[in-house]
Amino acid sequence: MAASFASRCSRVGRSLMDGIRNNFSDLPSTSREMACGSFLHQQQRTFIQMRTVLKVVDNSGAKKVMCIQPLKGKKGARLGDTIIASVKEAMPNGKVKKGKVVYGVVVRAAMQRGRCDGSEVKFDDNAVVLVDKQGQPIGTRVFGPVPHELRQKKHVKILTLAEHIA
């Protein structure tokens, strides 16, 4: 039963991709590849959920972490939410080592979020700042832009360390 369902799903996925390729058959090959790539890239903007790999944007020593569990919400984490993560890549002489379970605050998310004035904010990558259990940042610097929505979520210390507030 499960095997037949999986084979049907893979056939449906293949036929969907064939349909996309056929619709762009009149375009030059490079434009067709760019159009298909941008279509697929737009579909991947979702919540930060289990097994999402995030970039670490502070100087705590970690480079990449994988989300184990978002602490708020059923679907996943968004801007300003706290997650539990496992360190996947780390610098050799940093404060945080590979394999350690840490807490982090999402400071950049590829999923768009509406603001009060009607505008929307979204970033190109998913990024996190590592914090301790009390919510204080482990690192002393935060790199890249940080949205001002963190002030509403009571992460003012991260905003003071950030070099650019978006």
TrEMBL record:
UniProt superkingdom: Eukaryota
Xref: Gene3D superfamilies: Ribosomal protein L14 (2.40.150.20)
Alphabetical keyword list: Ribonucleoprotein, Ribosomal protein, RNA-binding, rRNA-binding
InterPro entries the record matches: Ribosomal_uL14, Ribosomal_uL14_bac-type, Ribosomal_uL14_CS, Ribosomal_uL14_sf
SUPFAM superfamilies: Ribosomal protein L14
Protein's UniProt keywords contain rRNA-binding: yes
Keyword Ribonucleoprotein: yes
Family statement: Belongs to the universal ribosomal protein uL14 family.
Protein name: Uncharacterized protein
Organism encoding this protein: Hibiscus sabdariffa (roselle)
